[in-house]
């Protein structure tokens, strides 16, 4: 029986991977979708259907207890372990599932909202290669401080989209810009959009941008 709170050392390791969109066996591209704190894989999969195109498989890992890590993403990294590392491993497992269906990494978008956006950013920055895209909706790199010199590698012009409000109560705007700088240093093709007064959410402009990113892959 699945433990809703996961294993102590790998809390997200035995959680469900929700699939939506095009069947994986029939897909030419995939999006790994990472939900926010208190949300579910099914809810972010529903969001994914808003930018879905035929040929895109949607794969959404579920966090144990609906939370990837316990503290704010700007806390010292060790205070968010083992959830952070387990969440990063869940992304890799989802990518492996897509790879097993003959979808290469350059046809895979890693996308998240809020906590999920932070994990998506962290995963791609720590594992740079050519992805189909990376999308951080209201999120950024994880840690109390970010040293841009700590990241190296080549994203090979991976499309990267960062969208956030200028008054998000959970995401400092400065961290979004720092994350964009890291992606640029890693040779990503970065688009950053800061929305005035939006709060903590996702807007139609962001969904439209992601739709265009996906359309170019399928």
Descriptors for this entry?
218 residues; alpha/beta; seven-stranded mixed sheet; 5 helices; 7 strands
Short description:
The chain is of the alpha/beta class. It is 29% helix and 19% strand.
Describe this structure in words.
- The chain has helices at residues 41-48, 83-100, 115-126, 173-185, 204-215, and strands spanning 17-21, 29-34, 56-61, 108-113, 133-137, 159-165, 189-195.
- It has 218 residues and is α/β, with parallel strands linked by helices.
- The chain has a seven-stranded mixed sheet with strand order 1-3-2-4-5-6-7, sandwiched between helices.
- Helix 3 links the parallel strand 4 (108-113) and strand 5 (133-137).
- Helix 2 (83-100) packs across helix 3 (115-126).
User: What structural class results from the helix and strand content?
Assistant: alpha/beta
Please report which band the strand proportion falls in: under 5%, 5-15%, 15-25%, 25-35%, 35-45% or over 45%: 15-25%
Terminal CA distance: 37 Å
Task: Kindly report the oligomeric state of this protein.
Answer: single chain
Provide the succession of SSEs. Answer: EEHEHEHEEHEH
Mean pLDDT: 96
What is the percent of helical residues?
A: 25-40%
Instruction: Please tally the helical runs, counting DSSP H or I stretches of 4 or more residues.
Output: 5
Number of strands: 7
User: Poorly predicted ranges (pLDDT <50, ≥5 residues)?
Assistant: none
Largest sheet: 7 strands, mixed
- Strand order, largest beta sheet: 1-3-2-4-5-6-7
Q: Tell me the radius of gyration.
A: 16 Å
How does the overall form come out from the CA principal axes?
globular
């Amino acid at each position: 029986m699945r433990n809703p709170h996961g294993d102590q050392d790998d809390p997200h390791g035995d959680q469900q991977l929700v699939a939506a969109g095009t069947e994986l066996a029939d897909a030419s591209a995939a999006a790994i979708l990472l939900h926010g704190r208190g949300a579910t894989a099914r809810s972010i999969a529903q969001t994914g259907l808003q930018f879905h195109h035929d040929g895109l498989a949607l794969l959404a890992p579920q966090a144990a207890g609906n939370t990837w890590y316990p503290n704010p993403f700007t806390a010292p990294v060790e205070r968010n372990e083992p959830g952070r590392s387990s969440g990063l491993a869940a992304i890799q497992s989802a990518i492996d599932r897509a790879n097993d269906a003959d979808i290469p990494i350059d046809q895979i978008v890693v996308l998240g909202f809020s906590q999920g956006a932070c994990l998506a950013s962290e995963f791609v920055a720590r594992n740079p290669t050519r992805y189909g895209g990376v999308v951080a909706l209201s999120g950024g790199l994880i840690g109390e401080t970010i040293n841009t010199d700590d990241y190296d590698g080549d994203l090979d012009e991976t499309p990267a989209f960062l969208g956030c409000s200028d008054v998000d109560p959970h995401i400092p705007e400065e961290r979004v810009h720092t994350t964009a700088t890291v992606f640029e240093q890693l040779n990503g093709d970065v688009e950053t959009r800061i929305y005035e007064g939006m709060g903590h959410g996702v807007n139609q402009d962001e969904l439209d941008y992601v739709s265009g990113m996906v359309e170019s892959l399928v």
